[in-house]
Structures are given as C-alpha cells and as structure tokens.
Fold each of these.
Amino acid sequence: MFSGSMVALATPMYADGSLDWDSLHNLVEWHIEQGTRALVAVGTTGESATLDVGEHIEVIRRVVDQVAGRIPVIAGTGANSTSEAIELTEAAAKCGADACLLVTPYYNKPTQEGLFQHYKAIAKAVSIPQILYNVPGRTAVDLLPDTVRRLAPIANIVGVKEATGDLERARELLDTLPKEFAVYSGDDATAMELMLMGGHGNISVTANVAPAAVAQMCEAAMAGDADTARAIDQRIRILHEVLFLESNPIPVKWALREMGRIDGGIRLPLTSLSPEHHATVREALRSAGVL
C-alpha cells in the first residue's frame, strides 16, 4: 500500500527546455530527507504531455535508480491512446517503478465503457500495480464512481487518485470500494479532509515546495489527529491557492526557481508565471515558511 504524502514531482528544465538532471537528482534527495512517502515521476505536473517517449522513460529510470528502494516510485504512464499507455506502463515496469499512475484519456472523451475497457486493457497487459487518476478539469472526461467500482476487482488496479475536490464523491468511494482499494486525494485544498475521512494519502502539488509540512499533515490526518492536521494545513493553505493561479505546473516551477531548487525552464505551450503573480506567490512562500 502506498500512503501519505506522494509528491507529483515537477520535471526540472533549463531555460531552453532541455532536462536538468542535476536538479532532478537534488529534488529527489530533498524529498526523501523531508519525509515524502513516494515520488510520482512524470505525472501531469511533470509535464508528461510535452516530454517525448524517450525522455519520459529516462526520467522514470533515473528516479528509480537514484531512489534505490528507499521510498516507492510511482510512474505517470497515462495517455489518450491505450496502446501508448501500455507502452509507457511496460517501460516503467522494466525500469523498476513500484506502480503506475494513469490519467484518464484526455481530449477524445471516451464513454464510461471506453474508460473501463481502457484501464482493463492496460491492467491485463502489464502486471505492475496501477492507480487510476481522475482529473476532469484537465481532461474533459470524468471517471465516475460506478466505473471505479467496476475496475476495483481487477487485482493490479490498486487505487484511484480523485482530483475533483468533491468530498461527497470521496465519501462515496470510501464507503463503497473494498477496504484494500486506496482512495487518494489529488486536490491539495481538500486533501486533509479526505484523509480524515479515511483516505490513504495525497498525491500533491504543494509538496513540491513544502514537502515536510505536507508529509506531517498527511501523517496526522491519516492517524486521525484532526487538530494537528488542521493546524499544519492552515499554515500552508495559501500555497494550495496560489500554486493554481495559472495552469499547473506554471506556478510551482516558478516557486521552485524562487527557492533556488530548479532553473525554472518550462516547455511550450506553457510559459513562465505572469509577472503580475510574482509578488503574490513570493509572499505565499514566505507566509508558509518555505522561502
């Protein structure tokens, strides 16, 4: 079981868009030191949509090799083509990833039956543990609870990252799925409440810049210590807001550059954070105690 704070790791780049392996190495070590429980390599926060297949696999391989079993590595291998998702998932398994995170197919808007068949085909093709990922605000398709329940009996589909921020839906999933099937938050603003309800962790954007605080909040929430969890979450809540002032990962990459962690490059069609937001994000980092 994967649990606790799982960072949706940004992929460091230079100004020209080339990959910055030294900064990636340093981020991995920092997260392990700060108490992050798992690394999600090349998820959507990691700009999976603009990395080519070779780069995608190389990031996964380097992260797995560096981590060397100290914490789990979950590889983002979703795609809007089932065959491509299978190819990436097979590659991640060969690299030694502990699990894969598969975003719903974006743009082509499959039916619920299409989603079921898509995930069933990937699970059948590759035996690695797989986590479903529902983020309709980015993909224009919503993986409904009924479909998650249809997929849950498949042995190597082990959980779902629910990023709608809808706590009523989270409650339904927790109440109706098998106890061993993990429900993770993919929405930092509501993650604490989901874990207090019985959720298994948070696949987090905020953890990119405040890994220790998010890790501590997750541990408290999962232990049922609501007072401690709420106190920590209140201290970093401003980050949950400002890191989405523009499309993720635009603000978080700018924040990491401001913290001296990465060079700050980002690939088109995304561009760097608009100047009018710089002071707001900088002040939020100071308020949260991470700058």
Amino acid sequence: MDKLNNMRVFCRIVELGTFAAVAREMNLSAMMISKYVAQLEQSLGVVLLNRTTRSLNLTEAGEAYYTRSKQLLEDLAELDEATAQLGGSVKGVMKISAPIDFGGIYMVPAIEAYQKEYPDVKILMSLDNKYQNLRDGLFDMVIVVTDCLDQGVVARKITSTELGTYASPEYIARHGAPETLADLSAHRCLHYVNTPHGDYWVFNNNGKTEKIKIDWYFATNNGRALSQAATMGMGIMRAPKLSVHDYLQQGRLVEVLHDYRIPSLSVYATYLQRRFYPAKLSSFVDFLIKYFARQY
C-alpha cells in the first residue's frame, strides 16, 4: 500500500466533495479511488468518511486526519520545491485561473513572454468567471479583477483599469447618450452577470459609491459577447476599460457617463499564504507586475 498516495487521494476527496470528481481528476475509476480510501481506513483502524448514496461527510477522526495530512503534503511539496531550486533552475507546472476575457486577451501574451525567460515552467490556465476558492487546492494562483478581495489570501496588484460605461455611435445616434445615472432607466442595458454586485451597476458619484439596479435588456457571463452586442447597437454596457480597449481604438464603442466612471479597478494575482513560495510562483507574479507596467 502506498500510504502517501492514499493520503493524497483522501485529501482531494475532502476538497472536491465526491469520489467521482477525484476519479476524473486523477484519470482513475471511482472503484479504484474507493479502494485507496478503504486501504487507508484499514491501516488506521478508523472510519474517515461517512458515505451514503447522496452525501459524504468527515468523521471526527477524518477531520483531524485531513488537517494533519494536508499540512504534511504541503510540507513535502515545499521540500521538493526548495530542493529543486538548489539546482538554480525555475521549473515545474503552474496551475492558474483567470477570468475568461482578461485571461484570453491579456494573459496569453504575458505567459508567452514569461516562458521565453523561464522555458522549464509549464503553465496550465483555466478560464472561468466563477469564484475560485484557493483553499480547494486546484490552483496555485488565481487572477481576479475586482474591488472585493477574498480575506486570508495574498493579493498582489499586477495592473489596474477603469470601470466605465460604453455604447456604439449607432446606438447613441438612435437613442441619445445618457447624461445622468437616472437617464439609464430609459435605455437598454447590457449586463455582465456573475459579479459580486448582482443586478446592480456601481458608479462613482462625486467621490461616493452609488449602486443602480438596472433592468437589463441582454445579459451574459462573457465579456466578448457583451462587447459584440454593444458594438451592434443593442444597448449600453458597463465594463473594465481593458476589456473594450480595442473597440474604443477602432471607434466601435465610445464612453458615456464619463463623470461617473470608477477610476481604479485593480487586477490582482492571488495565492495562499505559506511559509515557502515556489520559485515558479514568485517569479511569475514578479514578471506579471513588470510586464503589465510596461504594456499598459
């Protein structure tokens, strides 16, 4: 029995919540995952998980074993990283998550530039607009564009942008441009869903934050689709300036409600606080800060 492997499997079950999810992640059968847990419980002489067809819960012994096992596995990973760095090279696999639009538009060129300097680092990037909990252990780093930071994580600002309101010249020619926040009620609003603010748009009104609940006409969780809708004249959108930079340069979108823009919306690289930071992580974050300072 490989106890270390079984320990890893057990920890991932706790973090992902199901045997099936761990089986998919490890490219194994659910039966094999169950076998590993059974071997671990047999060797310890205790039940770690209470499992039924519908639920999976830690026993008291399971909670204690998970806490210590997680720390042990992290210590072993840190030991491997520290020892590898004695060789003088930066290498390994970096798993990162980024918002769909920011990741697709801006992170790929940044990663390409980084890997020219650090060719032994492989980067696996997942693009998702959903909240990612670093404590789940799926990612080494999560990129967030936000004004609401998660507590208890390290957050380093890699760049910033403005949060503005935009429409196409064609839309403005047909419907006019809003001049005050109250005017938005007479316009078709294009809404980006899955933000911390729900159905509200947030503005800077004379130095104070003001939230307006909008009656959206079209909504999506994809910034490119939202920008496309705006350029087609479907309505007015609210977005970080970085997301619509090219459309503004091309004249396909123009800013409205300029006086109500939020001047500084930060983009952060976030990661868990730990005693030792792998060179692949620290070098990548440092590189991103310098890269975006040069580019934007």
Amino acid sequence: MRAAIVENYGAPERVRIAELPVPVPGAGELLVRVHAAAVTSADARIRAARFPRGFAPMARLMFGVRRPRRQVLGSAFSGVVEAVGPAARGSDAGGFAPGDEVSGMTGSPMGAHAEYLCIAASRAVPKPAAVSHEDAAGVLFGGSTALYFLRKKADVAPGTSVLVIGASGAIGTNAVQLAARAGARVTGVCSAGNRALVAGLGAERTIDRAGTEWAEHDGRYDVVLDTVGVLSPASGRRLLTERGVLLLAVADLWQILGAHGNVKSGTAPERPEDVALLLQMLAAGELVSVTDLVAPLEDIAAAHARVDTGRKVGNVIVRP
C-alpha cells in the first residue's frame, strides 16, 4: 500500500510516499481502506518535533528521540471496512462488516496517512451516508477539541458571551458553531479575509486579529477560548467577566500546570461518542465541516506546508 512516512524530524519535505505492507487486523480490530484523512496541527508538530515549551523531553520519549517512532502520521480518518479481525465479529465488532463506512480517531498509534489502517473496532463509528468522507475526517480533530472545552471545561448556555480566538481554524470553526447552537453570543477573532466565513458560522461579531480593533479591544466575556496560543493566563483573565473562564486549547507545560481557578487547559480525549455526535450533527445539517484544501496523498508535503503557515481555514484533507 502507499503511505506517507516521516523518517526524520524536519520540514514538510521530510514527508514522502513509500510502499508498505497492508496491515493485518488482529483481535478486535478492523482493517479500513482510508478514503480521507486530516492533516492537523498535531501532525505538523510531531513531524517537525515542534512541541510546546516544556514538552520537548517527554514528547521525544513518546514519539521518538532522534526520529519518529511512528513513521505514518494521521489520526482523524474516514473510510470503508475492508476486513474484520478474528475476535471482532458480531457484537464484539459492533456489527461492523466489510463494506461498512466508518470514521474515527486512531489515537497514539496514528497511521491514517495511508491507503489502509488497522483500528480497534471500539474506536470506529458508523459514518452516516449523508456525510462525505472528507467532511467526516475534517470535523473530528477540531470538533472533538471544541466539544471538550465548551462542554466539559465551561458552561456554555443561552446568553453566554463567548470569545473564540482563531475562529477560522479547525478548532475555531467548530467552536463558533457549537457555541452559537447552544444559544451563546459569539465573537470571533480571525483574519480580515475570514470575517464573512466566521459570521456565517454563527458569530454575532468578528474582530480582525491584525487590526487596531483587536489591539484596542477591552471587552469582557463569560468564556474565552484561545485555539491558537496567543494568550497567557494573565492576558486572558483581563478579557473575562467576574465569573468568566479562560480556556487554553494550546498551552505550554507551565501554563497547563498553572491552570487553576478560572483558567483551564488540557488535552481533549478522542471519544467515540464525541465522534458519533459530530457525525450526527453533520448529517442533520447542524454543523458544517470547513475545508481549506483537499489533496491526493502524493501531495501530503504541500498539505503539511499549508498547515505550517498557520493560515489554513478549517481543515486540510488528503485522499489516499
């Protein structure tokens, strides 16, 4: 099978296409023919060994000290079941059979940037027929992170004032929609060219991140979600109402360790129930998966380069 591999840490050009054996599903696993996979900021960070401040030593131990331990990156995927492992039949596989369309997140094994991957049947979720593979793969990384922070770390309800910084990114486009659907009054910070998009997703107000409007902004919000890592706890707290909460979706080790009281951070879990909810919302037209680029697997270096710019709008997708 064709797969995108990273043999050494570095620039996007480090990613190349190679021929690898098709994996064999073991007990409780599914072999999935991948139709679409997201190239996320997490993939780019691992490829470049560009870890948040304080995380480099433990990240190197996890992902590989001198070179990536897992050469095939990619977590969020959508595809079709090709084969079922021996102990994953019937109820143990949730009823999955060859030909079923599934989506999911692989977790630390990664491996989605390839024509085939093996995944635990418990991590796979049926993909609704009304949802394309590209939209399914695109919504999972940013959508699950937005869900985690807005629903688990904050209490977003009708009338809540929410500020989303990085509102046009993978996390931000989902956060704006989810907060607006919850009845919140959403303000989105993004580039000038993306203000119309963010407003169309549900933001009542948009702010140009590069203009004086943001530099001079002194508003107060019940929830501030920083999806790009531009706020510190101190600068973020200045944007909060008396009972407001600051959510740092991107934070260094010291910010995470120091997050307490009205400052919250952490890593979103990859829960199948969240995947299922996001897919159901897509199918019902309650959520839109925003896509910046869809490219063949052969162009994955360009996909990584696009992510590295920090200017992608929504998601970058490759099709093996």
